[in-house]
Each structure stands twice: as C-alpha cells, then as structure tokens.
Design goal:
Layout lengths: L3 E2 L4 E3 L7 E2 L6 H5 L2 E7 L2 E7 L5 H8 L18 E4 L2 E4 L12 E3 L12 H8 L9 H14 L5 H7 L10 H19 L1
Parallel strand pairs: 4-8
Antiparallel strand pairs: 1-2, 2-3, 4-5, 6-7, 6-8
Helix pairs in contact: 3-6
Bound molecules: FE2/S2 (inorganic) cluster (FES) (2 copies).
One FE2/S2 (inorganic) cluster binds next to loops.
Length: about 190
C-alpha cells in the first residue's frame, strides 16, 4: 500500500496508526551555503568553510582531523563528545560550529605537553580507568574542568562532576580513582 504524503514534514501511511514525522533535510541549495568558521583549537587557528548546520563535533573530527573527540549518541546524553570551550566543558554534539566561531577549544589532543601526558591522562593509565576508551576523552575533559574549579574534590564530588558522561565498560570506580590520582599529582606540583 502506498503512503499518502501530507504537506511536509508529516507522512501518514494508511496501514499505520501513527503518523511519522520526518525532519526536513537540507536542500541542495542549503547544502551549497558555506560559512567560514574560525576557531582556535589546541592553540592552533582552524579556519574552515562549513555548512551552517555543521555540529562542532563534526567540525573537529572532519575539518580539523582531530578524531580524539568521539561521537556517541548525538543527543547530549553520553558525553563522549565533551571538549572545553573557553575553558568550560561542553558537549560538542549540541553546538553548531558557527556558535563556536572565535572561541578557544581544547580537545583531548591538546592536553599532553612536550610529549608528557597530562596528569589526568596518566591517572587513567595508572588506575586502569579505561577499557575500550570510547568514553575516555570526554571523561578526561570533564575531569579537567572539575580540577580547574575544585583542585581537591572528594570522590562524591568527582562522581557528581561525571554525571553527564557515561561509560559502558570500565566501571566508574576506576575512573574516579584516575581523577583523584590527577588531583593529588597536580596539587603536589603546585606546592
Ligand atoms: Fe554528544 Fe553523546 S555524542 S553527548
Ligand atoms: Fe569503554 Fe568507557 S572505557 S565506554
């Protein structure tokens, strides 16, 4: 049986009870529109012409070729795409690249300095804070924001700060250990 097409974006199939709402896709003309976006990523200027609907996470992965930022749910639930935007942890699947124009972004690739792991990266290594590693860049950047705001968090505070980041395979206690390790190491460095 053929579907009846009602005025877009609603399609109703006579043999179904529910109507299916179709989100309109970009027309060819819209796809041809490009906007130049200039974002400082990990200290380097990244200037690329992108479609206005390009998400920040796709800008980072596809245009900047920084694939350490992962795409999980694309619905702001999992936190795999977490980066720092002007120092604040954000889910880069919830922002358009054009919204970040002129901003400073830090991704996982920007944490190690002079070939030395950031204490958070070292903590994940030392405390077995990862298995598949899919959630890890997002966890580390959420941890970076926490330690910036609260250098000596309790385990409860670490767990609270990671509420927006999901891990499906490690178990959270090793991840909390990793951030506590980094907190201790960073505090020692400051003394
Ligand atoms: Fe962004 Fe899951 S991919 S929150
Ligand atoms: Fe596999 Fe977290 S280490 S999802």
């Amino acid at each position: 049986m053929q579907c009846i097409q009602s005025p877009a974006p609603l399609f109703i199939c006579p043999n179904r009870r529910a109507a299916l709402v179709i989100v309109p896709t970009a027309t060819q003309a819209e796809k041809n529109v490009k906007i130049v976006v200039n974002i400082r990523v990990n200290g380097n200027e990244q200037k690329h012409a992108v479609e206005p609907r390009t998400l920040l996470v796709h800008f980072l992965r596809d245009d900047c070729k920084l694939t350490g930022t992962h795409v999980g749910c694309e619905t702001s639930i999992c936190g795999a795409c977490t980066v720092l935007l002007n120092g604040q942890a954000v889910k880069s699947c919830t922002l358009l690249a054009v919204q970040a124009d002129g901003a400073e972004v830090t991704t996982i690739e920007g944490l190690a300095k002079d070939g030395e792991l950031h204490p958070l990266q070292e903590g994940f290594w030392e405390c077995h804070g990862l298995q598949c590693g899919y959630c890890t860049p997002g966890m580390i950047l959420a941890g970076a924001q926490l330690l910036e705001r609260n250098p000596r968090p309790t385990r409860e505070e670490i767990a609270h700060a990671l509420e927006g980041n999901l891990c499906r395979c490690t178990g959270y206690s090793h991840i909390i250990d990793a951030i506590a390790y980094a907190s201790k190491k960073m505090s020692k460095k400051k003394q």
